[in-house]
Design a protein that fits this description.
Layout: H1 14-25, H2 37-40, E1 44-53, E2 59-70, E3 76-83, H3 88-104, E4 110-117, H4 125-139, E5 148-152, H5 158-172, H6 193-211, E6 220-224, H7 228-239, E7 243-249, E8 252-260, H8 262-272, E9 282-284, E10 296-299, H9 308-313, E11 318-320, H10 329-337, E12 341-343, H11 345-348, H12 351-365, H13 371-396, H14 400-419
Parallel strand pairs: 3-4, 3-5, 6-7, 6-10, 10-11, 11-12
Antiparallel strand pairs: 1-2, 2-4, 7-8, 8-9
The protein binds nicotinamide-adenine-dinucleotide.
Residues 152-155, 197, 224-230, 248-250, 300-302, 322-324, 349, 352 line the site of nicotinamide-adenine-dinucleotide.
Length: 425
Amino acid sequence: MTTNLSYVNQNTDAWMTYLAQIERVKPYLGHLSTYIDTLKNPKRALIVDVPVVMDDGSIRHFEGFRVQHNLSRGPGKGGVRFHPKVDLNEVMALSAWMTIKCAALNLPFGGAKGGIRVDPRQLSDAELERLTRRYTSEISHIIGPQKDIPAPDVGTNGRVMAWMMDTYSIEQGHTVTGVVTGKPVHLGGSLGRVKATGRGVFITGCQVAKKLSLPIAGAKVAVQGFGNVGSEAAVLFENAGAKIVAVQDHTGTIFNENGFSAVQLQQYVAQNGGVAGFEDASAITDEALWDVQMDIFIPAALEGQITAERAHQLTAKLVLEGANGPTYPEADDILNQRGVIIVPDVICNAGGVTVSYFEWVQDMSSFFWSEAEINERLDKIMRDAVEEVWAKATENECNLRTSAYIVACERILMARKERGIYPGK
Ligand code: NAD
């Protein structure tokens, strides 16, 4: 795989993984494949310097990004990540996966993503607020409810979204709730948003498990990442009778073959900052996670976790990609050959962006729905997406990832074709 973009490091992972996924879908796109290069070039990438006055009076500079990968189908949509490993390559890939995801779910958005290279755990609350506000100000000319709508991702949350909304609103001179989603409910946020991504992982997982005749009751589930996505998915699987046997986060890996309570682990993590030390499970090494006996594996941490080697080790029958881009293309092939079914990220973790879409609609109309209405609409959209992707996979004799990409790329490239290239001949 190669790219003609001068600013991409050919040895980096995420963007090259995305390009490989796009190459795989190309043979299925017929005449629309003429436009495929649209998807290999982000429309717009902004790099910003974010100077922050630290609590001790010193000034530190952080590197920030906002990438709008494709806006053919509507405003950009995508989270903001605060993490020490954020770089342009990663943000580009994450923005591209948002393009695919919004189109696969038929949401009226393009794809975008942002981030700052920072470890938010090392900052005080006041420093984090100053960092967020300056970053928002630096990217404010390219975001907006009709342009590009950020949301939380790894290392950011409702509080960060509230600061972003407030900063943007101050610059506009009036309150603009629709500029970000994932806000606190009393600031124009949507009921159900916080739990939506984990819920979507559960809904899509159960639906595919049913097709595979894999019962959820009694199924052994292992989860990598126990934040917003992983912990909510684990709780829902536990409520449905599954056994949570292993969890890994940035503090370590815990295991109990008889299962342990995801709800109690959530409380423990809230108090202790991570899963390490949880009493009802034993500590194992991080690498040992990949050998644990399990039926369902939920990667819900970062991208690039399932390598070719780990794909050979994994005992799961079903992989539910809560994280974005957790599986390398070579690992994808190995899992496919081994008959392991993967519900790809662009469908599996789309619950969050779906309720973000609901939040944006509610903000635009200033009319808010009940949590029951939101969950009902979310479940329907997720189930319909799984059915559509499953049918496309059967029709094309391909796996669910390629099928989801066919559904999405057809929509994006049709929009590209019908809008035309400006200026024309
Ligand atoms: P989060 O910050 O709430 O949680 C991240 C979790 O990953 C934490 O438990 C952290 O300890 C763990 N982690 C970090 N580094 C790790 C490492 N090296 N090894 C193992 N665990 C590690 O983030 P989140 O919102 O739950 O997002 C998790 C994933 O889901 C990301 O890939 C994100 O892009 C994706 N996602 C999130 C949403 C959303 O609505 N939050 C939506 C779609 C996709």
